[in-house]
Design brief:
Helices cover about 40% and strands about 20% of the residues. The chain is of the alpha+beta class and about 425 residues long. It folds into two domains: about 15-170 and about 225-315, BirA Bifunctional Protein, domain 2; about 330-420, Rossmann fold (3-Layer(aba) Sandwich). An eight-stranded mixed β-sheet has the order 1-5-6-11-10-9-7-8. A five-stranded mixed β-sheet has the order 13-12-14-15-16, sandwiched between helices. A hairpin with a 4-residue loop joins β3 (about 70) and β4 (about 75). α12 crosses α15. The two termini are about 35 Å apart. The structure holds one RNA strand of 77 nucleotides.
RNA sequence: GUGGGAGUAGCUCAGCUGGUGGCAGCACCUGGUUGUGGCCCAGGAGGUCGUGGGUUCAAGUCCCAUCUCUCACCCCA
């Protein structure tokens, strides 16, 4: 701790032990996304501020107070991925390639909020979007995919769904709701009183006990949907049931971003403290046109990687163990042993074998210890003695058995023989690979 | 942005009402074993007690500020 420089608030390092989990999650996600026909798209993490203001909504908390913006340059670190993805989609005219595009991306997002459990200022999302399809079956498929990913990761999450209607039916619901809430405004929390004008739908999801009481008697948006939206929602539900995806309807669920229409959903868990959402998403049928693109519907979701990692870490059961850092460790003794070992290790690596050695001339005991620590299955002991009699000692670290390993032929063929050995010989015990 | 809790070794943490920083555990190094890992034993190394001020003969301990972590509000992945 010589330097008094630390990571800035809300940003954190992910150390090698934890990276193992990250890679696991990312691998699973890629695997499943590919199964569903999604292609990866990689996006810049910075965009013109205007993009987020126009898509997420001027009056949302994200845009009003949580963005990392370079004011002098008009640029902003992305607070979410959908806007960037759609920008790229429109910019490159991807809709001409095929009528329905399925894209995913993953990476860091930035929001200037107060950090707490499962919430960082730089956090990571897995993001999947389907553009160009309006069929309810697509909504169901997308949710099924999220559900499958969480299930394959071994996580317990509930799926809650709702419909927020469309520009044809939401405004009238909003009016109905405001009329109702006005009657009880006095009983509601100060936040909700303030939201009465700015974002009355948000009151439906308020945690305050008083508000919950009021909201319990409020009209439901599901009763106010126009026939097309109502039909869409019914068929989304049918789709989920058809695929046996468990879900519940939560007519109070609202979203923090303005662009959502019709289907919205959240994957929630009780094990994350105040942050119950592991992932969330919804349909945004007007957004692409609003950003200057073709008039195309879209739907997508984002999963919070940190939140998934937290859940995995809380889980009982066997931990993920990092892969061995070395398959074979060459223990060198003496100056000649060191020179020969260095070449051998290099040739092994060239041949695709994870090989390691120690250059500091430490005792054999210390080197064997290091071999064990690296998870090496074999140790090859090469000292000046071995070189002079042209025969090294090969030790199987699990069975503790040792055998001679001839060094008569060239270093290259020795390396080749060792590689064959490492890749073909079965482990002595049922030790994880 | 608001409120509670907390910062002592790489990690987890003792340290009472101020009086020399812990034979603490894990990890690390060395030795016990002339050249053989995991267990055991012995020894060793490792600290601006988050940072900056203040009170005091004396501050890890009390006071103020600040930074960070943490939990919650707000909001959200």
């Amino acid at each position: 701790m010589a330097l008094n420089i630390k990571a800035v608030q809300g940003f954190k390092d992910i150390l090698p032990d934890e990276v193992v989990l990250w890679q696991h999650v990312e691998q699973r996600a890629r695997d499943i996304f590919h199964r569903f026909g999604f292609g990866e798209i990689r996006l810049p993490i910075i965009e013109e501020t205007e993009l987020f203001a126009r898509s997420i909504g001027q009056t949302t908390d994200i845009v009003e107070k949580e963005m990392y913006t370079f004011v002098d340059k008009g640029l902003t670190l992305r607070p979410e991925a959908t806007a960037s993805l759609l920008r790229a989609f429109i910019e490159h005219g991807l809709h001409v390639l095929q009528p329905v595009q399925k894209l995913y991306t993953m990476g860091p997002m930035f929001r200037h909020e107060r950090p707490q459990k499962g919430r960082l200022r730089q956090f990571h999302q897995l993001d999947a979007e389907i553009i160009g399809a309006t069929e309810p079956a697509v909504d169901a498929e997308l949710m099924a995919m999220g559900n499958m990913l969480l299930a394959e990761l071994g996580l317990q999450a509930k799926l809650e769904i709702n419909s927020l209607g469309c520009p044809a039916c939401r405004p009238s619901f909003r009016e109905k709701l405001v009329t109702y809430l006005r009657r009880f405004a006095g009983e509601m929390c100060p936040d909700c009183q303030r939201r009465l004008e700015s974002n009355p739908l948000r009151s439906l999801d308020c945690k305050s006990q008083h508000c919950k009481k009021v909201v319990a008697g409020a009209p439901s948006i599901l009763d106010s949907l126009c026939p097309p939206c109502s039909d869409h929602f019914a068929r989304v539900r049918e789709g989920l049931e058809h695929l046996s995806v468990p879900y519940s309807v939560n007519h109070c669920m609202v979203r923090g971003l303005d662009y959502y229409t019709r289907t919205t959903f959240e994957f929630t868990t009780a094990s994350l403290g105040a942050q119950s959402a592991v992932g969330a998403g919804g349909r945004y049928d007007g957004l692409i046109a609003q950003l200057g693109g073709a008039s195309l519907p879209g739907i997508g979701f984002a999963l919070g990687v940190e939140r998934i990692i937290l859940l995995l870490q809380q889980q009982e059961g066997p931990r993920l163990t990092p892969a061995a850092q070395a398959e074979i460790f060459v223990a060198a003794l003496g100056e000649n042993g060191g020179r020969y070992s260095q070449l051998l290790v290099h040739l092994l690596r060239q041949g695709g074998v994870k090989a390691a050695m120690d250059y500091s001339g430490r005792s054999l005991k210390a080197q064997m210890k290091q071999a064990g620590r690296l998870g090496a299955r074999f140790a090859l002991i090469v000292g000046d003695n071995e070189l002079s009699r042209q025969s090294a000692v090969l030790r199987d670290m699990d069975s503790q058995s040792q055998e001679d390993f001839g060094l008569q032929d060239s270093p290259q063929s020795c390396a080749d023989r060792l590689r064959t050995l490492v890749t073909t010989r079965l482990p002595a015990s049922g030790r994880p690979a």
